[in-house]
What does this fold into?
Amino acid sequence: MALLEVSKIDVFYGRVQAIRGLSISVGAGEIVALIGSNGAGKTTTLRTISGLMHPAGGKISFDGRDLTQTKAHEIVRIGICQSPEGRRLFPRMIVLDNLLMGTYARKERSGIQSDLARVYELFPRLKERTKQLAGTLSGGEQQMLAIGRALMAHPKLLMLDEPSLGLAPILVETIFRVCTEINAQGTPILLVEQNASKALEIAHRAYVLETGSIVQTGTGKELLSSPDVQRAYLGM
Amino acid sequence: MGTIGEAVRRRRSALRSGLTGRFLDLGLIVVVAAFLILLATRVLEHGPSFFLQILTFAIANGGIYALIALGYTMVYGIIELINFAHGDVFAFGAFLSASLIPVFGLGEDKPFGVLPALALLGVFVVTMLVCGVLNVSIERIAYRPLRHAPRLAPLITAIGMSFFLEGALFLWKGPSNVHYPNVLPSAGFNLFGAEIGTKEIIVIVTALVLVVALALFVERSRLGKAMRATAQDRDASLLMGIDIDQTIAATFFIGALLAGAGGTMYGLYYNTSVFDLGFSAGLVAFTAAVFGGIGNIYGAAIGGLLIGMIQSFWDGYFESAWTQVVIFAVLILVLVFRPTGILGMRVPEK
Ligand SMILES: Nc1ncnc2c1ncn2[C@@H]1O[C@H](COP(=O)(O)OP(=O)(O)O)[C@@H](O)[C@H]1O
Ligand SMILES: [Mg+2]
It folds into this structure.
């Protein structure tokens, strides 16, 4: 059984259904990409896994544990943390305090210093700006901080919601490189992207989401060479 | 977060930008200078000892307003709600502590010493805790069920809660001013011709200690961090593992601890209270919170102090019938020239 199992969930905003019978899984050590156009339901899926929303039907389990109705603030304690859409930093806290907020739910406090060093190693820019207010960072730095903050929770599964959105090409490269590095160090990643080509390049497996349902799945390579995906998401 | 709040913030940051911002700050400086010059002429007329006298009153008065203002600003900071009932929790604190004074063996004009001081500490603690529980219950009953409702809904229940509490206080002690036992020593000492009371000293020191304690708590403690995080981004706080419901309840609790202390101090200092004290004092304290920059605890402390001082100085040097008008004129001027209040946020929200 995979680490994260989402099976046949339905999610609603009021009476509008955003997710229909969606099933995905993430196994230990994997990078799994979830791609789809704007409004397909990618963010809703991550919000539901994080417990910010609850599915009306279906089941979510993690590490064999049922999370379907678990509250959001408990989810991170169970080992799932995300860098959310729009970064959602604490703008009036400095970079360091934002990173430390990531450790809020951690029980073992001993590894915090080494994790901090690791985040600073992944993103040297953050180290230079450790005392700067998060609200005054550039978009790229904010994205690094959002990822770094999630890493500080020492998650067993890291979820990233469109980490490359709005970034200059060089920064996009950095972000994706860091994703593979984090993964290589042992953390599985569920990666949501509109930038399909990059995401599929680094993903072991991927799902294509359209109007709330999975329409295609396969390895990253398979999807990169799929004519449907090429037409719809790679602009070929 | 809320669209109204965001729109206001965007407008504020637009106002703050560039030359316009500087012009507006300049306007504020001109107004403040004009007021100070007017005040200075009167001060010179009445001599230094009178000034020193008024200054002590003013700081004591401002200290009490600061304590109330903190509760408004903390709650606003975390859920963007004006807790209209907060002033009434303060008034409840005044009533409750008055009733506790005989229970703790204290009474009118008894000699003051170590034992009475400890008893008074007991009155403070019990009053603060009961106010805390009351405010948490208000949040649980009247605000939490409406957390996802349109913003106007909890505002209306807040006004309703305020009326409800005032009604209850009315039933408890009736419509007129109620005497509050004079427990603190009336003695004082002479400083350059001004009579400085022990009362003023006690009020000022207590207020200062509480404000510093709160600031340390919010800056340093784990719960304080959770409160700041929740105020800045609720979803992000949830993702970090912060129990939002608990954190908001704690904010109401702590705000009411200060209101309870403020109510006790008000009674001890002015020796009177009345059922609708929460409305009049609450309005001024709320003004102070806005004046200082709503959502900012340092702003509320400074705003409370300044508003209390403006009130006392106006009472002392000008026509006291105009004091309320002056306070709200100050509020309007500050909001026109500096929409975020004196310590308003300058950092972009998101
Ligand atoms: N707060 C909301 N209220 C109502 N509908 C929403 C809300 N957020 C998203 N939706 C709808 O749910 C669908 C999926 O949105 P979302 O998960 O944000 O998509 P994506 O992240 O793939 O762009 C869209 O049709 C969107 O309009
Ligand atoms: Mg999205």
Notes: The beta strands of chain B are 178-179, 188-191, 194-197, 272-273. Chain B has two domains: 1-46, 57-337.
